[in-house]
Amino acid sequence: MLKRFFLILLTLIMSIVLMLVAATNSHGDNVISFDEPRILMITMGIVLFLFIPPLIMSFFSNFVVRIISGVYQCFIVLSFLGLIPIGFFIPNGFLTIVFSVAGTLISIFSVIVTLTIDKNKQVKS
Cβ atoms within 10 A of the Cβ of 43, count? Predict the structure, then answer.
């Protein structure tokens, strides 16, 4: 249970760090930046809100709940994967690529742990 929770929490931290890295390299009108802190805080709140379901589901060991959590986390993996090619298109996007790859690896590991942990536990009667 704690392994799943801390891996999802680490994924949340990686997504917020990646958002802050993206805010430092913002070029354009329709991007998040440190020039508009209210929009940056709203965006961080939305990301935090989207991570609440897998954080809550990490406390349960039911097989169905773990499958739902794993599928939910697969969408997080896809979002990190989508940021990797975007890092190649933005100027000074090396940090974006590094944090996107790190977030992808942590998210994949989190999905694996979510789906395989407690698999061999037997119910005591």
Answer: 16
Dist. CA 34–CA 56, nearest whole Å: 31
Q: Is 59 helix (H, G, I), strand (E, B) or coil?
A: coil
Which is it for the CA torsion 89, 91, 96, 98, positive or negative?
positive
Going by C-beta distance under 8 Å and a sequence separation of 6 or more, which residues neighbour residue 22? 31, 32, 96
Give the tens place of pLDDT for each residue, 42-63.
999 999 999 999 999 989 888 8
Query: pTM for the complete prediction?
Result: 0.85
Fill in the DSSP letter of residue 25.
T
Distance between CA 97 and CA 112 in Å, rounded?
22
The DSSP output letter for 30 is S
Cα-based distances in Å from 26 to 20, 32, 65, 91? 10, 7, 38, 9
In whole angstroms, give the CA distance from residue 34 to residue 13: 18
